[in-house]
Every structure is written in C-alpha cells, then in structure tokens.
Amino acid sequence: MSTTATPEAPREKLTKKILTADHPTWCPGCGDFAVLHAFYKVLEKFQFPHENIVTLAGIGCSSRFPYFVNTHGGHFIHGRAVPFATGVSLARDDLQVFVFGGDGDGFSIGGNHLDHGARKNVNLTYVIMDNFVYGLTKKQTSPTSPIGFRSKTDPTGAVDQPINPMKKLVTSGATFIARTHATQIKHMMEMYQRAINHNGFSVIECLSECVEFYAGAFDAGNPRKGGEFNLIDEKKFDGTPEDEDRHDTSDSMAAYQLADMEWPGIFGVFYEKDRPTKNDLENGIIKKAREKTKEASDLELLQKTFNRLK
Amino acid sequence: MSESKQKKENVNDVVIRLAGNSQDGIQTIGGFLARLAGRSDQEVITYMTIPSTISGGPSIFQVRIGSGEVLSAGDSADFLLAFYQHSYEEHLSFLKEGGVLIYDTEYVKPDVDDKRFVYVGVPITGLTIEAMGGSAKDKGKNIFVLGLLARMFSLNVEKLRTLMSEKLLNKGEDVLRNVLVAFDAGYGYQVDNVLDRYYAFEPSKQVDGKSQVTMDGNQAMTLGLITAGIRYGAGYPITPWSSIMEALRSELPKYGGKFIQVEDELAAISMAIGFSYSGNLAVTGSSGPGISLKMEALGWAVMAEIPVILINVQRGGPSTGLPTSVEQSDLLQAIYGSHGDTPRVVLSPKNVEDCFYVALEAARIAKKYSTPVIILSDQALATRIEAFDEPNLEELVVDPQLNLKTRPSDYLPYSMDKITQHAPPGTIIEGGKYPVVTGLEHDEAGHPSGNPELHMKMTAKRREKLQILANEIDIPEVHGAQEGDILFVGWGSTYGPLREAVLGNTKFAKKLGHLHIRHLHPLPNGLETIFSKFRQIFVVEMNDSGIYGYGQLATLLRARYCNSSIRSINKTDGLPFKVREILEGAKRLSGDAVSNYSAYPYE
Predict the structure, then answer these.
(1) What torsion, rounded to 10 degrees, do the Cα atoms B139, B143, B144, B150 define?
(2) CA-CA distance, A163 to A160, in Å (whole number)?
(3) Most buried of A274, B93, B314, B353 (most Cβ within 10 A)?
(4) B270, A87: Cβ pair inside 8 Å?
(5) Contact residues, B window 328-347, toward A, CB-based 8 Å cutoff
(6) Interface subset of B 226-255, CB within 8 angstroms of A
(7) For the residues of A132-146, what is the DSSP string, one character each?
(8) What pLDDT is stored for residue B338 in this prediction?
(9) Does pLDDT of B1 surpass 60?
(10) Amino acid A12: pLDDT
(11) CB B565 within 8 A of CB B538
C-alpha cells in the first residue's frame, strides 16, 4: 500500500492556544471544562505531530469534545465511538487516537462496544466523563445514577443497580484502567499521561460534575467541598513490609476489590497490564501472510487466485 | 467408452438436479461439475437450496450446463438424481417428460409404471460402501455419483481428477485416495445395463479464446473488492453474507489489509466508517436483519460524507424471515432506509460475473463522490456458481492509495463549491486549523449549525452530487425488441430468467424487450425514452406487490416517470423466478397470450 504525504516542515510548538478550537457549549461550571483543560496541557507535554492527533466522540454533552480541540476530529453517533475509533486506530498506527464521551455513551448505549474494545485491546485512549446523569437531554437516570437519584425518568428515585465502571472494565479485559476526578487537575493529567504511554486500550473514568442536573454529586471526592480524595497506594516492589499492603496494579482481583470501596471510592490506576494489542496482533497476521506470499504484488496474488478458479 | 453398446447422444443444454440431504455433500459434486464445465469452456449456472438448520435436512443442487449461453438454472430438469424417497417424491414434478431419473435403489422405490420418465436404478449406497470399505458407511456416495455422471456424460475424467486433487490437496493423501476410489467405483459402474445411451456435450460455441473462471457470487464480490483496492473492512456473521467476510478475513492480510470480526452489526459499520475516515475506503456488509441495524451509522456516513461500501446479500424478510431463501424486498430500505433525507448510491449486480464488476464500480463511485454505496446482491447470486470470462486484472487492479497530501489553509471539508473530499487524519492543513467530520448539520468548515438556510443548502449539496453521478451513468441496453409490446424491467438476479424469457420468444407475435437496471439509485437518465417505445412495461421483482399493487422498483419508476403503463410482476415464494413464471405473469397482465412458450433453446 502506498502513501502520498508531504515532507516534514519545521514544526511550531503545540500550545493550548493552538489546540483551542470552538468555545465549549457546556454550562458554566461544568466539570468537563477541566477535563478539556487537562487534555490541552497533556498534549503540550507530549508534543505529538499536530496532524496525527485524532479526537473522536459519540453523542452527549461531553461528546462535543472534538469541536473544542483543534485537531483532526470526528463526532460520531451515540454509543459507537469505540468501534469507529477502532477502525481509525487499526488502520493507522501513526495516529494518536483519543475518544471522549460520557456515562450514557460509554456504559449504556455503547456498553457492549466498550467490552469488546477492551477485550480486543485496541490501542487508543478513552476518557469517560462520568456525571451520573443524562445532561444533554436534561436530567434522566443514567447507567451510573445511584439508587434513589431523582430524575425526570425516576421522579421517586432511581431503582436500578448502577454500573460499576471499574468492575465492568476489569472484567472486560481493558489493559489500563484509571479513575480520577475533574476537580483534581494534577491527578487527571497524571492519569492522562499514563494512559497515553500505555500501549493498548486505556480507559480513564473521570467523575465530572453536571452542575445543572446533578450538582454536588462528587463533593464526597473533593477535599475543597469537605470530601476525601483518596489515592491508590501502588506497590513499589521494594521488599519492605509496608509494600505488602499496597495495590499491585497487575492484579485484576485486587482491582476488582478496590472497585467495591465505599463511596466516593478511591482514585488512581486500578489496573495496568501489557497484553498484545489488537493492532500488533493484526499486524502480526499480515506479516505472516506477507511472508507466506513471498511479498507478492497485489496483481500477482489476484492472478494466482483466479488461476485456481479456472 | 469404447466397448459400450450404448448410443451416443449429443447435448448442448442439460439441467441436472441432485436431490438429497444437506450432509450428503451434493454441493461438492455440483461444485465439481460446475468447475469442470468452466474449464471446458461450457457455460454453467448452478442453483442450490440448503436448509437453514445446521444438522441437515433436504437439500438440492442443480447444475445447468450448456454449449451456448446459459442464463438461468432452468425451469425443469433433464436429469434428476434422487438419494432418498423424499427426494424422489418432492422433485419428480420438476423432471421433464422423457427425463431421466437416477436413483439409489436402496432408498428409493419409484413408480416405474409412470412411463413419462426413464428409470436408472443404481445401488449407490451399497456400491460406495463396497468400494470404500465397511467403516466408510455411506460417506463418499456423492463422489460415487460424480463418477457415475462422469460416465453418463462422457466427462473429461482427467480434468475432474485434477479438480479433485486441487480441492482436496490440503486434506491429506488418505482423503484424496478414498475420494478417487469412490469416483472410480461410480465411473466403473456398468450403467449401460440400465440406460441405452450416453451423452456428450457439443463443443462450446465460445470462441473468444479467453479462459473462464468459475465461482459463486460471493466469491466474485470478494475478488471485486480486492481488485478495487479495498483493504479494510468489518463484519458480523449472518447468512448469506458470511462467506464474503470469511474470505476477506483470510485474503486481506496477504495484501497488507485487515478485516475485523466485531461484536455486532452496529460495530461493523461503525468500524468500516472509521477505516474510511482514516483514509482507507472500507467495506461492511450483512443481510436484511443486519442491514436494519446498520441504518443509523449509514445515515452518519451520508451526513458526514464519508465513503463506505455496504453489501446487502438479500434474503427473505421481514425480521429473521427466510435465511436461506432469495428475495428482493430490501430495495426501498437500500434507497431510503435511515432517518432524514439520506441520499446514497445503490447498485445491484445482475449475475455472478457482475458481482465482480459492481464491486469495482462501487469503490470508484464511493471515492469520487465521497458517499456510501450499497450493493444489493441476493441469496441466489451469492450461492450459485457461474463460469465467466476471466477479467483483465492487469487493467482493473487498483492500487490503494492513502492520500495525506497537505491541504491549503482555505481547505473546507464541506465546501459548497465542490464535491467533498476529506482530508484524513495525518493530513497537514496549512495554517493549522483542523476539521471535525460530523453527523450534526454543519457549515462548510464542519462546525455544527442549525441555521435553516444552511440546512437547505447542505441537504441540496448531499443530493446534487448524486444528480451529477446520474449524468455519467450509461443508459442501459435493451435486450430483445427495441420497441414493441412489452418491456420487462428487472434488477439484480432476475437478469438471467428475464433475458431467457425474451430470447426464447423472438419468433412469437408479441415483441418483447428487456431492460435491466444496475444503477438503482440514482437511476440512469433517459429511461423515459425507452419506456415510451413500449406499450406495456412490466417490472419483474421478487418482492410483494404491496398494498397498492406495485413492487418496490415499480413503485419508484411510477413515482418518477408518472407512467401508468408500468405494472408489476411479483412473487414471494423465496425461489428465483422461472422463465415460465415471468411469461405467465405477462400473459395475466397483458390479457392475451404472450406465446406458447417452450423452454429455450429447444425448438
């Protein structure tokens, strides 16, 4: 396969200013502003070639993200951002693929795709801004709304058991799973960086408050509102006795148990494991097939097939 | 056959129907016969039915081999081979008067007093077991039958042996040896004890010197896609689409490409669109139920103007419907399915060969017009085998190009002045303003906008490019009479029987023409001129005549041309049209006898 590209020109440093596009349509005070800001800052650090950054999303308030980032972007349909992004990632190893979305997009209408993107270990980074409510459609119960949450679809309080995102991700086989809070910029950036550096399907659940329809939802995790932002104490493998009790991020059972902690839970990297990515596996299949064909041209291969059908 | 006391009878058009159960391997014999015909430059069309259950059930494979043009699998059989009593009982009515019934004497007790037929009883099961040894049970009796047919039709045994060796090469020498033992047993059977003649095909009239290739419609479609430079795709298994995805999955890596099996139909089209968005035109496909699921994402591709190829191998609907039967009831879905005004291109191949060429055309149109293109194939095309001239690959093969040429700073993804050509990610945009490709209504730069005037303009932009496409489509050729009494209009796999209906009637009073439409949306320009030359226009479709009495294409043509002489011949029995059914339909609608039709090319 041939590529026509234009040769490298001297590059301008990527700054927040350059990366800023349309002004967000989010309500003033929305947690997503911070997630966007952290994204700019992290891109400033990484300095990827500008044209190779791709920002993709499904539908929802947070899924408007691509319009606010000046990169190649795609605003797809509700729930299907992961398979859409998978196509981009698998065809183009040269790109940095980011997916943004909310809890409805990721855990409800797109829940099945999240599982399969995770088990396939597609190389991309998926940031789920979880606000526990449907915001764009103005306050209906979401898959992460807690029992008792009063919404327009549950006026007497939600009755269905909410999804536990960390548990869902652990069981579906995501290879990088982190949880953060939109009020904690530094932590968010750290999670972003580790997710980007991870080769595989990296997911960050970011608790991001909907000030309009679920104000105060995440105060319990925000020290400035009297809450506690407790971090996962990761194992250092230093042989010390205190290391025994620390969390081994390669232990999926331990990650699953951490996900059971009482609200507001704990933040940081729950799970991180190197496993061959779908990208690598598919490239491996190609490599083997190409070797077997002895690097034959397209025409030679086709001719061979047609000869067999004569 | 030198010692034979049999008479030789030359034949130029023979229909053989093999009837048994799906586990008997009759598809295998049929496949060998078809391939042999192809290699001998005979024309061939096959037809098969398979039960939709896994563990067997009655099944047929029909082969029609001819020395001249073979257009359909045949309305009736010259030879019926019945493995079981139920095969005999169910299919005897399909046998022509004077036809030959070959049957397994261990399972079939025919009514030999019925003098309309010639009876050839052969202890197929017993002789197979005898030849192959006790442990074989009756496995291999299909190959025994192939040997038997090879003798009866004086087929080229060397070519058949080569074909069997090629096919079974990777199954091990033991398997091949067993198969050849069964074949020899069948070939060695003294058929002259029960049949007073043997048959020989007249040499083919094919003189163009091109080699023939033999394959089914799904194979042709797959190879068309690869030749067109398609290197990416995604799919979910469903009958009768699966064999395309299976073939792409194993073939594409050889070409450096990827075909991904995904969790569902929604993911399949979404991923294909993702591939296309990344600059690599991709394919997805399915059959009815899966196509319904893909409709939302298809609408996105229309709105965002991302090219993608969507193959629908139609089967009987609605819902789960008839998974292994044929129907053409997805036309309106293909053209109008998905919410909103969603103009897209719809093409339909007319035969197996055309499955190859339609895939090439779909890719060309998708790229040029940055649009989704739906290919409407069907179960009959997907599974039937035909021999056709080998395509000129050197001329046709497309090198897949990923175009990441830098775009100028005034680049607009949705410019009003030209047909959209996206800049895939990885493309540098001078000035550093990068585009968002979107399913929201948008301005020229891709920014969301609900502006009423803009929506009107963008709706027109998406529609107008297909109107431009319509200008470059050739007006289809009319077969048979160029003007006259009745014009048959068809699309898709009805091509063969329709053409045969017209050819077979040239000597009768009614002047019949046949117009076949490959470009279903947009339609070619100029059809009204053709229509104006015929008194009556009968649109022949395998779908329901609907509440208002017209099939799906007929409805469209009536709406577009306001021509009240357009009427419908429909059927919904899940089987391909027979020539007879078309002519009977015409007779019914035209109110007088079309002809005393008898099967072409006899008489």
Answers:
(1) 170
(2) 9
(3) B314
(4) yes
(5) none
(6) 226-227, 229, 231-232, 234, 251, 253-255
(7) SEETTTTSEE-TTPP
(8) 95
(9) no
(10) 87
(11) no
Name A299's bridge partners. none
- Kindly give, in sequence order, each residue whose CB lies less than 8 Å from that of residue A30, ignoring residues fewer than 6 positions away: A24, A61, A208, A209, A210, A211, A212
**Cβ-based neighbour number of residue B339 at 10 Å:** 9
**Count of residues in chain A:** 310
Q: Which two tokens stand for residue A76?
A: 């797809």
User: Is B430 part of the contact surface with chain A (CB cutoff 8 Å)?
Assistant: no
Write out residues 190-219 of B within 8 Å (CB-CB) of A: 211-215, 219
The residue behind tokens 């004077």 is: B98
User: Which percentage of chain B shows pLDDT scores above 90?
Assistant: 75
Total count of residues recorded for chain B = 603
φ, ψ dihedrals at A135, nearest 5°: -95, -45
Domain ranges of chain A: 16-275, 277-310
> Which of the four pLDDT bands, split at 50, 70 and 90, describes residue B597?
very low
Question: Residue A51 is nearest to which of B256, B401, B426, comparing CB atoms?
Answer: B426
- CA of B229, closest CA in chain A: separation in Å? 9
**How confident is the model over B33-43, as a mean pLDDT?**
87
Beta strands in B407-545 (DSSP E): 436-438, 478-480, 484-490, 512-516, 519-521, 534-541
| Average pLDDT of every residue of chain B | 92
B208 pLDDT exceeds 90?
Answer: no
Which domains are seen in chain B, by residue range?
7-209 (3.40.920.10), 213-396 (3.40.50.970), 403-472 (no CATH), 478-590 (3.40.50.920)
Confidence of residue B600 (pLDDT cuts 50, 70, 90): very low
| Domain A16-275 CATH superfamily | Thiamin diphosphate (ThDP)-binding fold, Pyr/PP domains (3.40.50.970)
Please determine, for residue B602, whether its predicted confidence score (pLDDT) is greater than 70. Answer: no
Which helix (H) or strand (E) covers residue B402, if one does?
strand B401-404
Question: Would the pLDDT of B599 be above 50?
Answer: no
Residue pLDDT, tens place only, B164-190: 888 887 888 888 888 899 999 999 998
> Does B97 contact A at CB distance below 8 Å?
no
Residues of B in contact with A74 (CB under 8 A): 277, 304, 436-438
Instruction: With beta carbons under 8 A apart, name residues in chain B contacting A298.
Output: 226, 229, 255, 397, 399
pLDDT greater than 70 at residue B508 = no
Q: Do B382 and B405 contact (CB within 8 A), yes or no? A: no
| DSSP one-letter code for B390 | P
Hey, which residues does A204 pair with through a beta bridge?
A127, A178
A127 neighbors A34 (Cβ within 8 angstroms): no
Residues 518-557 of chain B whose Cβ lies under 8 A from any Cβ of chain A: none
The pLDDT score that the predictor gives to residue A2 is: 59
Which residue in chain A is spatially nearest to B283 when comparing CA positions? Answer: A87
Task: Write the residue in B274, B296, B448 that is nearest to A67 by C-beta.
Answer: B448
* Whole-number Å distance between alpha carbons of B458 and A145: 39
pTM: 0.95
CA gap B38, B66 in Å, rounded = 10
Which ranges constitute the DSSP H helices of A92-225?
103, 111-120, 165-172, 185-197
Residues of A in Cβ contact (< 8 Å) with B211: 310
Compute the distance between CA of residue A48 and CA of residue B580 in angstroms, rounded to an integer: 67
Average pLDDT of span B125-139: 79
Query: What are the average pLDDT values for consecutive 10-residue runs of chain A, which has 310 residues?
Result: 61 94 96 98 98 98 97 98 98 98 98 98 98 97 98 98 98 98 98 98 98 98 98 97 97 97 97 98 98 97 95
State which residue of chain B sits closest to A109, comparing Cα positions: B266
* Predicted local distance difference test score (pLDDT) of residue B552: 98
Across B363-378, average pLDDT: 98
C-alpha B120/C-alpha B135 separation (Å) is 27
